[in-house]
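S.,

Sequence below, as promised.
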Amino acid sequence: MVKITKEEAIFCEKSYMGETDCVDCKYYATDTCKSRETHRMAVKALEQYCEDVGELSDGYHTFNQLYHQRAVLFACIVKQNKNKAWKSFKHSDGKYCFDSNGEWFIVGIDTPQGSYTYHYAKEYWDMFDCQELECGKEWDGHTEEDVTRLLSLEQQYCDDCVSREATIDLVADFDLSMDQVVRGIHALPPVAPSRPKGHWISHIEHCENLGLRPSGLGAYMWCSNCDCGIDINEFHRNHYNFCPNCGADMRKSEE
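The prediction came back faster than expected:
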C-alpha cells in the first residue's frame, strides 16, 4: 500500500473526485489526465485512513448517516403510497439481490412516470410498510437521475379527512342527536387533503411586482402562494411540480 500523509490523502481524494487539479499533470481528474497514479493513490488513501468507507464524512454527515436518512425518508413515501409500493429479497429474475442470500432487498414504488427503487440491508426490512413480493418487479431502466419521478406521486385519499362543507351541512341539522352526528361523520366519504394551487414567477416578474430593479446577484423562481424563492439552477435540476416550502401544486390545469 502506498503510504502518504493525511493531507496528501485529502488532496488526492479531491483530485479523484474531480474537485481539483491532478498534482501530476495539472489536468482535471478526467480521462484526459496524463497520469492515473495520483487517482489510484486516492483509493488507497481512503483505505489507509478509513477502514469503513461508510464513516467517510463531508464535514457534516458520514455516508452511513446519509444512507440511514435516505432510508427513513423513502420509508415515509412508501407508507403514504402503500398501494403503489412493494419490496422483495429477490430481483425479477428470481435471484437474491446482489447474490446475498437474503442480506439485501429491493423496495420500489410505481409512480405515474415509472417506477423508482432502492436497495437496503435486511435490517431495514420492517421499516418499509408495503406489499411483499416473491420477486421484485422488472427494472424499467430508471437511474438515479429519475428520482424526480417521486414528485409525480398524487396525494392519496385519507380515511381521517372529510369535506368541511359536508360536515357543516350534517351538524347544521339541530334535530340530530350527538350519536347520529357521530355516525353521520363516520359515514362521510374520505377526501384527499386539499392542496393550494400556485404558479412559478420569474425573478424579473417578481422584482417588478415589488417595484424593484432585478439584481445580478442571483436568479430565483418564486412561488405565487408563499413567496418562497428557489435558486434557478436548483429549479431546473428538479423540475418542481410542487412548491417545496408550502406544497402548492404548480402544475398547469388542463383546460
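The first strand starts at residue 85 and ends at 88.

Coffee later?
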